[in-house]
Design a protein that fits this description.
153 residues; mainly beta; 14% helix
Length: 153
């Protein structure tokens, strides 16, 4: 049975956003420590192909001196969208709030970039329409870094 214990996991993956190998650490809840299973508990800022709630296998890496990601064992159905503000007049909190009102969570970095979690239960067509509405006048640019099967239309 899962408990409330949190751990940090190191991810070393290629980021299509940054176009380079990227290192990022993420918080995760312990699902089964003996089996090395953890549920991601925050939104990845740069990493592709993972989303909050995914169950991953991680093990201690002596070179890294911490738990390191090895593979995803179970996908949550959530999606990760990375958004960059292109217009200097755009306000990060205001744009983030638009998606928050749709049921999405987001975490900002600086005043021009945020990572957004789209829960599996959300109709992604509505989120996608809002993303497109903001990207056409170049208010934002976005990448569907981890689009779950349930969100692909």
């Amino acid at each position: 049975m899962a408990d409330d214990k949190h751990v940090k996991i190191l991810f070393r993956l290629y980021s299509s956003i940054l176009e380079e190998m990227t290192v990022e650490t993420m918080w995760a809840k312990v699902v089964n420590e003996e089996q090395g299973l953890y549920a991601l508990d925050n939104i990845p800022f740069y990493l592709p192909v993972i989303a909050s709630g995914d169950i991953v296998f991680a093990e201690y890496d002596s070179d890294e001196q911490m738990l390191a990601y090895r593979e995803t064992r179970e996908y949550s159905g959530n999606s990760t969208i990375h958004v960059i503000l292109m217009n200097d007049a755009a306000d990060l909190k205001s744009i983030g709030k638009l998606f928050e009102e749709m049921g999405c969570n987001w975490e900002g970095m600086g005043d021009k970039y945020f990572a957004m979690d789209v829960p599996a239960s959300i109709d992604y067509r509505l989120v996608k329409a809002r993303l497109e509405e903001l990207s056409k006048p170049e208010i934002i640019g976005y990448a569907e870094s981890c689009l779950s099967g349930g969100h692909q239309y």
